[in-house]
Amino acid sequence: MNEPVVATYSICGCDLAAGQWGVAAQSKFLAVGSVVPWAEPHAGAVATQSYANPRYGPDGLALLREGLAAGAVIERLTAEDACREHRQLGVVDAAGGSATFTGGACHDWAGGRAGPGYAAQGNILVSGTTVDALAATFEATAGTPLAERLLRCLAAAQDAGGDRRGQQSAALLVVERDGGYAGLSDALVDLRVDDHPAPVAELERLFEIHRKLFGRTPAADWIPVDAALRGEIDARLAALGHRSLEDWAGIENLEERLGGPESIDPVVLEHLRAAS
User: Fold this and answer.
1) Closest to 43 (Cα-Cα) out of 94, 81, 86
2) Start-to-end Cα distance in the chain
3) Where are the beta strands (DSSP E) in 28-86?
4) Please, where in the chain does CATH 3.60.20.10 lie?
5) Per mean pLDDT, which range of 17-26, 136-145, 157-166 is the poorest?
6) For residue 271, what are the contacts with CB-CB under 8 A and spacing of at least 6?
7) Which terminal CB of the chain, N or C, has fewer other CB atoms within 10 Å?
8) Against a cut of 0.85, is the pTM above it?
9) CA-CA distance, 19 to 107, in Å (whole number)?
10) Please, what's the largest Cα pairwise distance for the chain?
11) CATH of 8-214 among 3.30.70.420, 3.90.226.10, 3.40.50.1240, 3.60.20.10
């Protein structure tokens, strides 16, 4: 084998009630997010690693789209691959079924665990406790939004030992039909840390920024805009040189958090007050 080793721990997961599928990964490998994670709404999620076969991503999603279960997808992909003993693969299907595969020639420690709604796997790890932490954290965080849940899995796995070669990159991909920017993208969250001494912590930092810009505050928590608040908003906008909230929010990348004139997202109001 002369391919690069994507020494990685990863987890594929889904939240069927929310219609979300995703993958999170960390590796001592440059830009793990460019190789390992693949997901499509109402089809499933795939993680391909070790001496990674990048074709497992699109080919696996195509098989999931046809309705194959996770285990059948792994069987189909690996059966046609002469280097399958060097591969590692995790799959979660449209129904939440899961399966994981570790070829016999993967570098120790290598292995995986699968359970309802998730497939966790890793290679060149300190020990199996890394994968155990992925699985245990996913199982213990039911009811938490999927993106946050997958991030917690990564952090727990790193705390349990992680990749024995160290850290370099991390990625988080979560998809939902029309759940991304402007309702015109399926990428609800797509964040990557390509080269960093503490990539999981950096990914968590980026996720907090993402949540601030693109998150959704429940309508019941929005603040009614009465005459006094309208006066404050207009005065603050004027001080910043903007004629409208829409103009300012577009500059600040907060346009996804705007609504009608009768109420305002508290995140937007807090940001406006801090800016002025």
Assistant:
1) 94
2) 58
3) 37-40, 44-50
4) 8-214
5) 157-166
6) 212, 252, 254
7) N
8) yes
9) 35
10) 71
11) 3.60.20.10
